[in-house]
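Sample pair:
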Amino acid sequence: MHQQKTAMRISRTKRRVFKAVLFVMLCSFLEILSFGAFRLREGRWYSWSTAAQIRNSAGSSSTKLSLPVDTSATGAVHPYVGCVMPPNWEPNKMNMTWGEELTNHPCDGFPSFRPVVQKRSPNTVIIGLFGGSVAEIFYYQGIPVLLEKLKEDPKYRGREFVVVCMATGGFKQPQQLMALNYLLVQGGELDVLINVDGFNEVAFHASGNQKQGVFPIYPRSWAARVGQIRDPHVLKLYGQAAILESDLRENGEFFSSVPMYYSPTCHLLWRATNQSLIRRLQAAKVAIENDHERDVLDRPGFGYHPSSEEEVYEELVGIWESSSRLIGELCAANAIQYYHFLQPNQYVEGSKPMGDDELQIAFREDHPYREGVTRGYPLLRQAGERLALSGENFTDLTDAFRETQESVYIDDCCHFSDLGNRILAERIAEAILKSPN
C-alpha cells in the first residue's frame, strides 16, 4: 500500500514535470516563431531596448500631444503667451534622458530644468529652445547629443552650457515670439536661440480653431481654453479620450516590465492591443471634432470666415514667417545668435522610408493633421527660402530622415523616438557649426 502511494506521488510529479516542460517548450516555440515573424516583417532582428522604447514612447508622448483638442490640465491660460504649464504639471520621465529633476517655476511655467531667466557670464553659453512639443521632447532627448557636438567648436570649448526650455506642447507662432518677449522683459538673456517649428502652424488650425471661426493667430484650441463646455455629451467624449490616453500609457508600461520586456510574443500582443486602443482614441477625436453641439461660451477671437482654403494657409504661413523675422530682429538687437529649423514630418511626401511597423504607428490616411501638412509645408518651405535669402540662419529639416530606414516616428502626429532626436541634434549642430556667426 505504501509503495502504491509512493508510485502515485511519483506519477503525479512526473505529470507535473511533463506539463511544465511542455509549457516551456510551447512558450519557447512561440518566442522563436515571434522572433522570426518580427524579422520577416521588419527586415531586422528584434531588439529588447528598441521595442521597449517604441512601446513607452507610443504610450507616453503620442496620445496626449496629438489630440486635436486638449483634454488634460496642461495648458493653463497665460496673459502674454497664451498658455503655460500649470503649477502641478509633471513631465513623463520616460521621455527624459538627461538633466536635473524638472522643477516648474511659478514665475514662468515653462518645462525647463532651470529657471528660464538667466544672466550671461564669460564662462557660460545660454541656449534657449523654442517651439512646440517636438522641440520640448527634443529638450529632454536630443540636447545631450547637441551639446557634445557644439563642444567641438573652439568658441564653445571650456564653457558651461545652460539650456533653458521655452518650448511648450501646442505652441505655434506667434507664441514663440511672445515667449521671447516675455523672457527679455524680465531681464532674461540668451547667447543662442534655437527655434524648431512649422508643423503646428499649419496642422492644427483646420482640425480645431477653423471649425469654430477662430482667427489663425490665436493659440491652439482657444475655445476649449477660455470657454465653458456645458454639453454633457461632449464632456463625456473628453473623459473617454482622457481615459484612453491613460490606458495607452499603462499598456506600454505593462509590456515593458519584466518578464514581458524580453518577449517578442508580448511585443506583438502589445502592438495588437495598442492599435485597438488607438482606434478607439481616434474615434473619440473624430467625435469631438465633428460634434457641432458643443456649447462654448466667452469666446474672444471668433468670427474668422476666409473666402478660400488658400487664404487660410497663406495667412498661417504669413504669421509664421513674420514672427520669425521679428524674432531675428529681437535677437540681433540683444546679441543673440538665432537659428531657425523647419521640423520634419511623416506626412511630407517622400520624406522618409517607412516599414510596416512604423506605418501602423505613425501614418493615417485620414489623419486630421495630414491635410495641413500637405497644403502648408510647400508654403512653409518657400517662406523658409525667403527667410534664408534675407540673412536668417534658416534650415529646412524636412529631409532629415530621408535616408533613415529605422523607425523614428512614435505616433501618427509628429513626434520622434530617441533615435530621431539624435539625428535631429546632429543636423542642428551641423547647421550651427557651419554658420559664420
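The CA atoms of residues 369 and 412 lie 9 Å apart.
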